[in-house]
Amino acid sequence: MPPAPEPTRRQRILRCVRNPLYTAQLVFRPSRPGRVEDPSVGRLQLWRTLLGIAAWVWLAVTYGLVSDEGDVKGALSDRFSQSWISVLVLICTFPVVVGAFVVAAQGEQRRLYLRRALRSLGSIGALMGAMATFPLAMAPDPVTKGFRDFIGLPGKIVLGLMCLWSAGFALYGIGLALVHVLRTADIHELVPPSLAIVLSWELALIDLITGAYPGVPLLARALFIMGAPATVTALSWWEMHRLRGHGLTLRQALRP
Fold first, then answer.
1. Taking the mean position of all CA atoms in its chain, how far away is CA 248?
2. Which pTM was predicted?
């Protein structure tokens, strides 16, 4: 069979309009040509994510955090809030870690990494823009309410459709942003594991300060909170070790 023809630009745009999940993949998945991908690391990251979800479900059921339908909805809402907080912390950590990486680079490497970072910045802007549609459509403050009154019924219908599209894009995008660490592999393969280590310990510190999972015994809570960054750190170091086998070291990344 002959290969399927490449979709035209118009067809790709229409697909993005129809399918927010497809658009999220384009925005949040790394796509730099020549990027080193290790299937073993990808599979292990998937298993780590599944085991993390299973551990959270076990914790919620074992210690009575979920006992009826209302508790399930509340737990899912809390889980989404935690994921959104993780993305916000990642966005705040991004300029620090990436900025240090760029500053440490020499010569042409520095300008190259700055250009590559534009894709990550674009994904941040897309996610924040999608989340901004919800207060614009539903916030009760006088400014947004006046805007909705100004656009009338046709505008409200368009705004509602935008919210539905943004919901799919944002929900899927939050997951992709965390898995692919804001597509920072487009900058360099060593940036995602480095950023993941910093992010995981920041989130553990936030959980300790805010007293997350108050209904769980102290020992189980400590193991759950500290187990996540310990696992992420071990996986990230192993990923860096695998990348060294491809000749990707920190010294090679920073020197032209």
1. 24
2. 0.84
